[in-house]
């Protein structure tokens, strides 16, 4: 029991000493410094270094932000219209090609034979028709002299008409054989960039194969498809209908780099009932191919320009249970001010209520601030703006209960 009492006595002594140091330390340590006009040494009494920026009037773009997908204007699977062995490829994977450029060739042997057959039949028919017409001319003269019967003359007329009909049919066969022969040379249907080839030289290519030879994607110009909430539809539609050109910015995934600028071209004709959004399409020239098909981008649609808005950096805005607020400097102390936010433009936000131009707003050092906390303003050159010395009052010693 003796050692327990001794332990309790030691613990009690330590607690009393700690309490005495807690209540008497500010008075003995801070009072002399305050009386001497020196900077307080307590971290809770020292002013918080901050950087401020003044609220300024500026023209601010009203933007609608969305998530978009880069979509080519045209994508074509290059297919062969005829079957046969693939003999030559005239492209490299990833090449940029123009419409009409020769890409591949199919073996022409079978189609040359078909063309020659049709051509021979046409020549044969031409000779027969020529001979029939000569006989018809002779029969015409004999008919005038009543040397032949009318039936014989009519029969010759029918033969000429029959051969002329056959000639048209054979000519069509010849044209078809010529067309099939031309299909053995495969040309690019559009201008764009090639993908990876799907068939190698020597393989037997089937006509209209779904796999195709290669894919061509039109990359310049290119479009971005994105969706906006139904609540923003009226604002965007009014601006679009007014006839003004609405510019669209495409930013990278991290919204750190502007990739390209384009214009809004199309609004969809109905709202998606599942998501409550409307799809929009913007077109970009993409001459340097900054945008890549199926790429994810952050979209900023510039709807209008707000003239003379009160603006501050967006990083200065804080969010709490009571709403959005900022810290201002009043008599070298931080004070909270509730504000109403407006449009946002490249790191700047418009303040529609709660702030006047020229008011200093805390931009850096926010994490250590609280209402009424003393601050010292750091200038851009690193110097400290003069501030009145501020000290904390020492805590009162608690009175012992009587």
UniProtKB/TrEMBL annotation:
InterPro entries: MdtA-like_b-barrel, MdtA-like_BSH, MdtA-like_HH, RND_pump_MFP, YknX-like_C. Residues 74-217 form the Multidrug resistance protein MdtA-like barrel-sandwich hybrid domain. It is found in: Cell membrane. Belongs to the membrane fusion protein (MFP) (TC 8.A.1) family. Residues 309-377 form the YknX-like C-terminal permuted SH3-like domain. It comes from the Bacteria. Residues 380-402 are annotated as: Disordered. Keywords: Cell inner membrane, Cell membrane, Membrane, Signal. Its main location: membrane. This is Efflux RND transporter periplasmic adaptor subunit. It holds the Pfam family Beta-barrel_RND. PANTHER family: MULTIDRUG RESISTANCE PROTEIN MDTA (PTHR30469:SF12). Residues 221-304 form the Multidrug resistance protein MdtA-like beta-barrel domain. The keyword Protease does not apply. Residues 115-184 form the Multidrug resistance protein MdtA-like alpha-helical hairpin domain. The keyword Cell inner membrane applies. Residues 382-395 have a biased composition (Basic and acidic residues). It comes from Alishewanella maricola. SUPFAM superfamilies: HlyD-like secretion proteins. Residues 1-21 form the signal peptide.
